[in-house]
Amino acid sequence: MNAWPAPPVAFDVGCVAYSVPGRSLYELGGHRANSAWLAMVWLVRRAGDIADQLDPPADAPVRAWTSDGQEHARALLRLGRQETYAYTIHDGDVRYVLAAAPVVLVCHDAAREATCAAA
After folding, report:
1. In which element (H, E) is residue 45 found?
2. Which phi and psi angles does 56 have, rounded to 5°?
3. Is 46 helix (H, G, I), strand (E, B) or coil?
4. On the CB side of 116, how many CA atoms lie within 13 Å of its CA?
5. 18: which residues sit within 8 A by CB, 6+ positions away?
6. In angstroms, what CA-CA distances link 16 with 24, 27, 30, 43, 57?
7. Considering only Cβ atoms within 10 Å of each terminal Cβ, which end of the chain, N or C, has fewer?
């Protein structure tokens, strides 16, 4: 019996902001990363950008998260199991959500020319 290899996985990462009492959602950037590690790099950098714009003491938990190696390891384990990882930043009534989600890529090899597209 032939075993099919697992399809390659990429990760869509992004950041949104919303107001708790409101209904508006604002996209604050996104990216497709080729690995869980690169997804985490993007999330940490984007969290740092947000922390730079926050007033104390709201920035302290974000800065702590950006250097929390244990939390990043847990996130990488989740992403490695092809699960979504999200981190929420609280600033009064505003929430910033940073998230990474796996995207399974479907590949087709025709005459040794492989092409991949998001499923």
Report:
1. helix 36-53
2. -65, 150
3. helix
4. 10
5. 24, 25, 26, 94, 95, 97
6. 10, 4, 9, 12, 21
7. N
How many whole angstroms separate alpha carbon 45 and alpha carbon 49?
6
Phi-psi region of 117 (alpha: psi -120 to 50; beta: other; left: phi over 0): beta
pLDDT tens column, 50-87: 999 999 999 999 999 999 999 999 999 999 999 999 99
Its pTM stands at: 0.83
Instruction: Fill in the amino acid letter for 113.
Output: E
pLDDT digits (tens, 9 = 90+) for 33-46: 999 999 999 999 99
**8 with 51: CB under 8 angstroms?**
no
